[in-house]
Amino acid sequence: MPNVFDFLAPLFIGDGAAGTTPLTGFQALQLVAIAAGAAIGALVLGMVIHAVVLRIGNTSMVARTLAARLKGPFRWILVTLAAQQVFVRSTGNDGWLSAVRTVLLLAVIACVGWLLAKVVLVIEDLLLEKFRVDVADNRHARRIRTQIIFLRRIALLVIALLTVGAMLWTFPEARVVGTGIFASAGLLSVVAGLAAQSSLSNVFAGLQLAFTDALRVDDVVVVEGEWGRIEEITLTYVVVHIWDDRRLVLPSTYFTSTPFQHWTRKDSQLLGVVLFEVDWRTDFDAMREEMHRVVEADELWDRRVAVLQVTDAVGSFVQVRILVSAQDGPTAFDLRCHVREAMVRWLVAYNPEGLPRVRLTGVGAEEAAQAALVSGAEERVPAKGAHDPKAPRRVPGPATPATVVLPPVQVPDRRDDSLFTGSMEAIERSKAFAGPSEAEQADRVERLLREERERIEAEERDAIRRRFREEPDPSLTTSVLPAVPEKRR
Predict the structure, then answer these.
(1) What distance in Å separates the CA atoms of residue 76 and residue 43, rounded to the nearest whole number?
(2) pLDDT at position 7
(3) Using 50, 70 and 90 to split pLDDT, how confident is the model at 395?
(4) What is the rounded average pLDDT for all residues in the chain?
(5) Residue 307, strand partner residues
(6) Using CA atoms, how far apart are residues 362 and 236, in angstroms rounded to an integer?
(7) Cβ(347)–Cβ(278) below 8 Å
(8) What is the DSSP letter of 428?
(9) Which residues have C-beta within 8 Å of that of residue 122, sequence separation ≥ 6?
(10) What are the percentages of helix, strand and coil residues in the chain, rounded to 5?
């Protein structure tokens, strides 16, 4: 009676075709036991390899990361591959053997896909560790991290599609369907393109955002009237973390077709604005001194800009604008709140005349009162010391405000009431917003003219070459090319 080793002979001497003799129950148990032993041996081998890698790469962070993250999928690949090879090389033709072979092959393919996905994640972790964002100037790191995360998503998607495709390709029916799909790929691509036009446009918009540096993870933006931080950039949408912990999910095409405010495009430093509407009698010099005292005592101020300006004086109020600088958007928001609160408290306590007031005066009221005082009933002069009860009473007019002479104001040396003039920093800021200088504009025009001349000359040379290739000039060929002597026979 043949035993199981007859069916497993190809395991030792090479691949063989499936036999025609079915396995008995005992032979099947022996085959399962051998497959289990092979799986256990592969598991032990995986543990040994893991220990050796840890031993050799004890001082290497890369080796430790690989050993820790790839331990699971690597062991499962060895186990499933060992068991699958035992069943594949057996020569029995039982139906359950075919099913087991198929299941184990699918498991091997899935484990390989798992291993590749883990490798991608390990590479991502190593690169993200290199480009850290917990530093002061992290614009370059945030750009690289955005691209790394985007590439990781694409790689995982490709691995998943390849894994599923390889698993389906093991079934003959799926191969027939796949052949038919490839045969009609032209029509299907047109139909799929029309059906998934919106999704594809979002995918290409996501690629554009990630690789043109238009948007980065952790960028501060204002979209749809909401201030927030870019939390996630995917293939089709962008997640914005709003300041009050809400999430705003927008399609990728929004950022390529709609204008939005980008607060960290170049750097994260910002100017915060605090607006007040005060009375005309406000002491602006004292208010400016109080503003300086407040910001200098606040640790959120980055010591760059602290300016108080009167920006408007129309109607009943005077508009005052305070500009303060901070290292980033959140800090600027808190600093604005601190300054606003302190200045309101100062106005109430030390300069109540500056509180906003609405003045209502009737038309001609003051003139009527003065006329009643001057041309009223005839005034009879009573005798000295006497009182005439029939004498008309004097109608009191409005009190004339006393003229108050204010002391001369000592203007400080610093020009903290100007944003674009009065200091070297303000002048530099003015240059930044003034556009290119005349010399730069002249250089730009000269460069454009030079590029245009070079383009015209290149087109003329190309035209001459084409004409020479189409109709070569014999005289030119004779005069330019030297005669080649004939070889002696």
Answers:
(1) 8
(2) 46
(3) very low
(4) 74
(5) 323
(6) 64
(7) yes
(8) H
(9) 65, 66, 69, 70
(10) 55, 10, 30
Q: Between residues 14 and 232, which one has the greater pLDDT?
A: 232
Query: Are 148 and 127 within 8 A, CB to CB?
Result: yes
The two tokens of residue 215 are: 């948007």
Tokens (6 digits) for 485: 């002597």
pLDDT of 225-240, one tens digit each? 888 888 888 878 899 9
pLDDT of residue 403: 42
Amino acid identity for residue 57 in this structure: G
- pLDDT tens for residues 136-161? 666 677 778 878 888 888 888 889 88
- Please, which residues bridge with residue 318 across strands? 278, 313
Residue 96 makes CB contacts below 8 A (sequence gap 6+) with: none
Question: What domains lie within the chain, and their CATH numbers?
Answer: 1-130 (no CATH), 137-264 (2.30.30.60), 270-354 (3.30.70.100)
Residue owning tokens 């973390």: 241
What would the mean pLDDT of 288-315 be, rounded to a whole number? 90
Q: Is 264 exposed, middle or buried (CB count within 10 Å of its CB: 0-12, 13-18, 19+)?
A: buried
Nearest-angstrom CA–CA distance, 361 and 488: 121
- Backbone phi, then psi, for 381, in 5-degree steps? -85, 115
The residue type at 117: A
**CA–centroid distance for 404 within its chain:** 58
CA separation, residue 113 to residues 73, 160, 300, 370 (Å): 9, 7, 50, 98
Strands 317-326 and 220-223: unpaired
pLDDT confidence bin for 390, thresholds 50/70/90? low
CB atoms within 10 A of CB 451: 10
Contact 118, 126 (CB under 8 A): no
Q: What is the pLDDT of residue 362?
A: 62
Q: Which helix (H) or strand (E) holds 220?
A: strand 220-223
CA dist 228 and 237 (Å) reads 16
Strand ranges in 243-344 using DSSP code E only, listed in sequence order: 247-251, 261-262, 270-278, 306-314, 317-326
